[in-house]
Every structure is written in C-alpha cells, then in structure tokens.
Amino acid sequence: MDHELWSHQNKNSHEFSSSTISTELSLISSSFQSTCKHGGLISRTHHYSSAFNSMRNNRMKTWKPNGRNLKNKVRQYWSCSTSLELYDNPWKIKKALTTSDLGKLNRLLFGAELLENLMLPVLDADAQRDAESGMGTPIRVWDVDTMSMHLLILKRWASFKNYVLIGKWNHDFVRRRELKKGDEIGLQWDSYRHCFNFSVLKRIDQC
Fold first, then answer.
1. What angle do CA 176, 148, 78 make, to 5 degrees?
2. 97: which DSSP letter?
3. Smaller CB count within 10 Å for the chain: N or C?
C-alpha cells in the first residue's frame, strides 16, 4: 500500500515538473530547442544571432561620440533641424541691414542661394516663374512685432543675379519701423497664414 502511494506521488511530481512553465530568460524555449535541434533551426538561429551581433559591433565602431557627430550643419530648409541643439532658430532668413537697404533704391537685397533655398520653394509655380524672370511676384508679409500685414514684391535683380524685395519696403518697413544700418531683421515662412513673418531681431543701438 505504501509502495503504491509512493509511486503515485512520484508520478504526479514528475508530471508537475515536466508541465511547469520555465522562468528562465531565454529567446528560444528549451522544448523548442530540443524539437528543432535535429532540423538545423538552432544552428541557423545561432548564425543569424552572430551576424546581428557582428553588424551591431561594426556600427558601434564607426560611431564616435564627438562634437562633429553631435553638432551637424543646420540644414537650410524650413523643417526642424535633426541635430542635437537646445534651440532651433525659426528665423532662417536673416540680414543685418546695409546703407543700400535703407536708401532711395527702395529695396531689400538678398543673396540668390538663400532665397532659392528658402523662399522660392514655398511659392507656387507661376509665382516662382515671375520672380525668377524679373517680372516680380507679390508676397504677403506679416509684421509679428506690430501685428500688421503688408505687401511686397519679390523679383530677381538681373544686374546682380540676386533677389530683392521692393514695393513699399521703405514706407512700410524702413520708415515705419525706424530701421537703421546694422539692425538685424528676419523672415520666416508661416504655413498657417501662407505668408512670410517679419521681425526686427536686433537693434544696433541695443547691442
């Protein structure tokens, strides 16, 4: 009787241990390993794991945590920079005003590369063509400092192959905002209003 009871308990204990869920941390269960060992799956899994570790180690060797990796060049596009920075300056079109920007020529001069990268792409095809041909295209400019909307003309200046903003530049900006030589102004594209925002970023007499 005791022998039968012992055999029954031992059998239950064996069944319990074989059905218990393993708490061992493993990517492949022991039962799966045992089942697939003869089929070659384990060797292939080991091969893929080794290849992955090799690729990861190679990437770690090529990456170096120095200043050049952490501070990339700021891209000249309206999208946010992906480089590690505390602040992404939205005023990507900036200029310190010169004497000619404030004179009787009544125009604000910009380099061709700057406006071709940042201003022309946001205009429609007809507006781009008119600006590049020298005919000129109107653009709306919102003064964020005074909360007022203005209209300027963007055109390519053929003699210098640069771009200028003309129209009421002197009246609406130079005189109204009392701009001086050395003042820094900025422009940014406002996709919500479909216009360019304008601001006086720095006054020369306040530096």
1. 105
2. -
3. N
Amino acid letter for position 104: K
- Looking only at the bridges linking them, the beta strands covering 195-202 and 93-96 are unpaired
CB 185 within 8 A of CB 94: yes
Tell me the three state secondary structure of residue 115: helix
Rounded-to-integer distance, Cα 82 and Cα 73, Å: 10
> C-alpha 124: how far from its chain's center?
23
Q: In angstroms, rounded to a whole number, what is the distance separating the alpha carbons of residues 36 and 43?
A: 9
| CB neighbours of residue 183 within 10 Å | 22
Tell me the HSE value of 204 on the side-chain side, using a 13 A CA sphere: 11
Q: What end-to-end distance do the CA atoms of the chain give, in Å?
A: 103
- Taking the model in full, what pTM does it have? 0.59
Residues with Cβ within 8 Å of residue 108, at least 6 apart in sequence: 95, 97, 101, 164, 165, 166, 169, 173
- CA-to-CA distance for 85 and 39, rounded, in angstroms? 52
Number of H helices, E strands in the chain: 7, 7
User: How far apart (Å, rounded) are the C-alpha atoms in residues 79 and 117?
Assistant: 12
Q: Residue type for 88, please?
A: D
pLDDT in tens, 49-83: 454 455 445 444 433 444 443 334 334 454 544 44
Task: Walk across the sheet containing 162-167 and list its strands.
Answer: 93-96, 184-190, 195-202, 137-143, 148-157, 162-167, 108-110
